[in-house]
Design a protein that fits this description.
mainly beta; 36% strand; eleven-stranded mixed β-sheet; 235 residues; 4 helices
């Protein structure tokens, strides 16, 4: 789907599920979810509008993140999903290629997060023992929690990297990118959040799994997106 792939590092936008209320797609890296105000800019939203008529974005992925993305076909469906997103979503799984060698382990990353209005960069601050997620210590700080586990360690072009699976407990802006920087292992290709290398030629982050309750049928909808080919460079 789409007319111009010159700025894409992966395949084109793909529809993986569609019914009378929803469209679930696989977004390639390099494609915006929705326009940031530039008239005529091709986005996942504009491509689906051309395909299906008026659609509504339910959630977003960063431009350079690939993977699963949900759109609604009508306003009521959009509102039903967004107003109950945290309860409706049962799983948000991402796979990332992080710089460095990380031990085979599973754990949690919990921080406070704050977006600077000047730099437009999100910053992490320590979540101390006794902190209450519902009571941030400063105005505009947000609690962020990610569950992660190392799934493969190896090298790309002679340098160490680790493939890590993230499951989001909260869905803050740039959460995985910020949490990766926080633990000292930025996502490959993520210069904004501290990466020194770009072995994949793109941001090493992919929205691989999404499970949610359908707002009208009540069915559990489970989707999995295969990893991009470039992730196979990790050996």
């Amino acid at each position: 789907m789409g007319k111009n792939n010159r700025h894409r590092s992966e395949e084109d936008l793909k529809i993986v599920y569609e019914d009378q209320w929803l469209i679930v797609v696989e977004k390639p890296s390099g494609l915006l979810s929705m326009s940031a105000g530039h008239i005529g800019q091709e986005t996942a939203y504009s491509m689906l509008t051309e395909y299906a008529g008026k659609v509504f974005i339910v959630h977003r992925l960063d431009r350079d993140t690939s993977g699963l993305l949900v759109f609604a076909k009508d306003f009521d469906t959009k509102e039903a999903l967004q107003s109950n997103w945290d309860e409706a979503v049962l799983e948000r799984k991402y796979t990332a290629i992080l710089e460095g060698d990380i031990a085979d382990e599973e754990g949690w990353i919990e921080t406070w997060m704050y977006e600077s209005p000047k730099s437009m960069k999100v910053h992490s601050y320590a979540f101390e023992n006794g902190d209450d997620p519902s009571r941030p210590p400063r105005k505009d700080w947000q609690y962020a929690s990610s569950r992660c586990r190392s799934i493969k360690r190896g090298q790309i072009e002679g340098k160490p990297y680790t493939c890590v699976e993230f499951n989001l407990e909260t869905g803050r802006k740039n959460q995985i990118r910020v949490h990766s920087e926080w633990i000292g292992h930025p996502i490959a290709g993520d210069r904004k959040y501290g990466a020194q290398t770009n072995p994949l030629g793109r941001l090493g982050l992919h929205a691989q799994g999404l499970t949610f309750i359908h707002p009208w049928t009540g069915k559990t909808m489970k989707f999995t997106s295969p990893l991009p080919r470039c992730f196979r460079k990790l050996v």
